[in-house]
Amino acid sequence: MQGKLQGKPPVVARDTTGLIGTEGPVWAVIRAEAAALAEREPMLRPLVQPVLVSASGLQMLARVLAARLSGGGVDRATLEQLMTGTADDELLRATEADIAAVVTRDPACPGPCHVLLNLKGFQALQTYRFAHRLWQDGRQEGARFLASQAALAFDVDIHPAARIGSGVMLDHGSGIVIGETAVVEDDVSILQDVTLGGTGRDVGDRHPKVRRGVMIGAGAKILGNFEVGACSKVAAGSVVLKPVEDRTTVAGVPATVVRVHGRAEVPAEEMSQDIS
């Protein structure tokens, strides 16, 4: 996803056969890690072998998410079929970039299989991706249902109309809220309990636009229709009520500028919580 996400999202053409293009190499790594996991941890073997070892990348993703989202009268098989029928190359490439983002930014992450199986921030983001595809196709009821199931399962509430790029990490995930007209560009890191919200009962375009390379610290609230500039940082616990310039750290309630970054700094990749 290049440049700023703006304007109305395009209608995405899909292969109605359910087949998509060549998957990225990360899925081969996941299969190898899953096979090793099944060998050393017998308790997990029934889960790992049918879901990962013999599946395509799309099947892996759909099966893991369906297992977490099933309930409320909808079974795993129905959810899996819905997601595999909704996917396209763009969605799978974004998923692969999201996996890479977690592996490279999270020092506690042992590998991509762990990301797929265990990390609810990642799982919530991928559920959003399927819901967003449904929304783009005019299937708002199905999109809202997936979003609702994700909120219940993962404690992450992302409106399916929001626009989110690739290479995004929702670290820990719990309590994240992303509103309907919010935009999150590529290569952004968001920690737990972050809100990208509005400021009341305004209608229309009313949520933040988070540009590439931004890191948003735990508990931060960004409220209103304005930009958080590229490669900026929002400190943990801050309340942001006005635009943030590119390459700037803001902190406090309400947030104010505390430093300006060098051009080489990319807070989303560095994940440093230091604001001095």
What features would you highlight for this structure?
15 strands, globular, alpha/beta, 9 helices, six-stranded mixed β-sheet, serine acetyltransferase, domain 1, 14% strand, 276 residues
Write down the overall geometry.
globular
Topology pattern, helix = H, strand = E: HHHHHHHHEEEEEEEEEEEEEEEH
Largest sheet: 6 strands, mixed
Mean pLDDT: 91
Q: Under the CATH scheme, which architecture of the largest domain would be assigned?
A: Orthogonal Bundle
The proportion of residues forming helix, as a percent range, comes to 25-40%
Rg, rounded, reads 18 Å
Low-confidence stretches: 6-19
Number of domains: 2
Task: State the fourth-level CATH superfamily of the largest domain.
Answer: serine acetyltransferase, domain 1
- Strand arrangement across the biggest beta sheet: 3-6-9-12-14-15
CATH topology of the largest domain: serine acetyltransferase, domain 1
Secondary-structure blueprint of this entry?
Elements: H1 26-40, H2 45-53, H3 57-69, H4 76-86, H5 89-105, H6 112-118, H7 120-136, H8 140-154, E1 156-158, E2 163-164, E3 169-170, E4 176-178, E5 183-184, E6 189-190, E7 195-197, E8 209-210, E9 215-216, E10 221-223, E11 227-228, E12 233-234, E13 239-240, E14 248-251, E15 256-260, H9 267-270
Parallel strand pairs: 1-4, 2-5, 3-6, 4-7, 5-8, 6-9, 7-10, 8-11, 9-12, 10-13, 12-14
Antiparallel strand pairs: 14-15
Helix pairs in contact: 1-2, 3-4, 5-7, 7-8
